[in-house]
Specification:
single chain, alpha/beta, seven-stranded mixed β-sheet, four-stranded antiparallel β-sheet, 11 strands, 37% helix, 15% strand
Length: 347
């Protein structure tokens, strides 16, 4: 039985709640023709390699996977040896939202650093960049950053370059968790390369699901010599798709043209509209907590205000700070929905 759309109202809980973009769905259907070589030997995956080189440079190699956690674990596991450690922000998704997958599946030690806004700096990295040569300490061999961060902030090209240079000087690699890298590029007005390969990053987890995909992510190797054994590790980590053409078709739909940018620009604009409306609120205790640099709006709300708005729209409290809530916009968020939520929060 098909339920009415009214049974599934739009939400501000996460851009993961949004449906599949029609252009992505069309691409999946178009790939559903006859037989094609399995495990990536198909024309759609070959086309994806061309898009990766166009977007990130001639040395780029792309490896489709099933999900973002798998992409992060696979990327980091392929980048450093078993004795390696990864420096990350304490709020990073790899640290807070992957149920220990980097440690348990990837065998990686995470070295956490507290940040004010979710962003690492060379100075913050230095807090954990020590102990090389000591057999008693996991060796810091990689830095990972989220673009955008879990607090919705974006790294500029200069900030990424500073981190990359700092990491390379100390014999470390720089990995980017790019589950929302499109939102960062749209906010900054840059290409994807300008905030990854051209800024010195070594490898990237490229997001698609949050931009309107059905379920596809990828690891992109940006520099020659990174990702040793990734072909084998992808299988070991249960991230090798037999019918890879359908994952590649989704990524082609998003990154073969400008769909990723159109989706990100729209979701960012809805977040900016939402933040501006909240900032005009005349309700005591309602305040935008962090700069809005993506499709995320973090807002401090009195509990009664939050509960009233949650009767109409789903969204959740941020676990690390009492009274802080995250409001996420998506590729299909409408101005009417944003304005209705503004009214609920500001009256």
């Amino acid at each position: 039985m098909t339920e009415s759309l009214s049974a599934h109202p739009h939400a501000f809980a996460s851009d993961n709640w949004a449906g599949v973009h029609p252009e992505v769905m069309e691409a999946i259907a178009a790939a559903n023709v006859g037989h094609a070589v399995a495990y990536g030997g198909d024309p759609w995956t070959a086309e994806l390699q061309e898009h990766a080189r166009r977007l990130f440079g001639p040395d780029a190699e792309i490896f489709p996977v099933f999900n973002g956690s798998g992409a992060n674990v696979l990327a980091l596991q392929s980048a450093i040896p078993r004795w390696g450690a990864v420096i990350c922000a304490a709020t990073a998704h790899v640290n807070t939202d992957e149920t220990g997958a980097p440690e348990k599946t990837g065998g990686l030690k995470l070295l956490q650093v507290d940040t004010a806004d979710g962003k690492l700096t060379p100075e913050l990295v230095e807090r954990e960049a020590w102990g090389w040569g000591s057999q008693h300490r996991a060796q810091p061999l990689a830095v990972t950053i989220s673009q955008t961060t879990e607090l919705g902030t974006s790294y500029t090209p200069a900030e990424i370059r500073a981190l990359a240079d700092h990491a390379h000087e100390r014999g470390m690699l720089l990995h980017i968790d790019g589950s929302r890298i499109g939102a960062a590029a749209a906010h900054l007005g840059t290409s994807l390369a300008e905030i990854s390969s051209e800024a010195g990053a070594d490898l990237l987890s490229l997001g698609a699901t949050k931009s309107g995909g059905l379920g596809a992510e990828a690891v992109v190797l940006l520099r020659p010599g990174t990702g040793a054994g990734i072909e084998y590790l992808r299988k070991i980590n249960l991230q090798l798709s037999s019918k890879m053409r359908f994952a590649s078709a989704q990524l082609n739909a998003l990154y073969g043209g400008d769909l990723w940018l159109r989706s990100a620009t729209h979701s960012n604009a809805m977040a900016a509209r939402l933040a501006a409306g909240i900032e005009r609120s005349d309700v005591d205790g309602v305040r935008v907590a962090f700069p809005v640099q993506s499709n995320a709006v973090f807002v401090e709300l009195p509990e009664a205000v939050a509960q009233r708005a949650q009767q109409r729209f789903a969204f959740g409290a941020w676990p690390t700070q009492r009274g802080l809530y995250r409001l996420m916009c998506a590729w299909d968020t409408t101005t009417d929905e944003v304005d209705e939520l503004i009214g609920l929060l500001g009256s």
